[in-house]
Amino acid sequence: MKRREVIKLIGGVAAFWPLAVGAQQRDEARRIGVIVNVTADDPEAQASLAAFKQAMQQFGWSDGRNLQIDFRGTAGDPEKMQAFAKELVALKPNMILSRSTPVTAALLRQTRTIPIVFTVVSDPVGEHFVESLARPGGNATGFTNVESTLTGKWLELLKEVAPRVKRVAFIFNPKLAPAAARTIRA
């Protein structure tokens, strides 16, 4: 190899070396906020968090290494929901995982830019969390546990199973189940 070729090779490697090193250094920890509608030490919430961490590890994300999870439990308290939503948004996470309709509502009052993935949400379209289930739009997407128009089907099924039933009660906390009114109307 001639001297000029060696110099070109070294020059080429030197030119790309900062890019390669920079790419490795950019593998900084990602931050995920998690808010649930129960206490932080709730056994079900802890089991779900452990399963989430395990699933993330399978994709190469390890809590404390290249991932930081900020976990908050609101214990069903609307004031805590709003305070924790504000707190997590201020931490500027890469995304927030939300569990429940009221928690998701609190988060969306705080941010329309940070991605929010919700679970256990009733009627995300009716709550204006998403434009539609097929095309959510905005910064929120997720999984719904109940669609309010199914209420009529539930009553039909109940009448088939127990034809003598004449009255049905629907009990809910309006602060924690804002979609209940739409469910009753349906």
Walk me through this protein's architecture:
The chain folds into two domains: 25-147, 3-Layer(aba) Sandwich (Rossmann fold); 150-185, no CATH class. The protein is built from six helices and five strands; from the N terminus they run H-E-H-E-H-E-H-E-E-H-H. Helix content is 42%, strand content 18%. With 186 residues, the protein is of the alpha/beta class. Strand 1 (30-36), helix 2 and strand 2 (67-73) form a beta-alpha-beta unit.
Relative helix content: 40-55%
Determine the CATH superfamily of the largest domain: Response regulator
Low-pLDDT windows of residues? 6-25
Shape: elongated
Query: In the residues, how many domains can be counted?
Result: 2
What is the C-alpha radius of gyration, as a whole number of Å? 24 Å
Structural class category: alpha/beta
- Classify the fold: give the CATH topology of the largest domain: Rossmann fold
Quote the distance from N terminus to C terminus: 80 Å
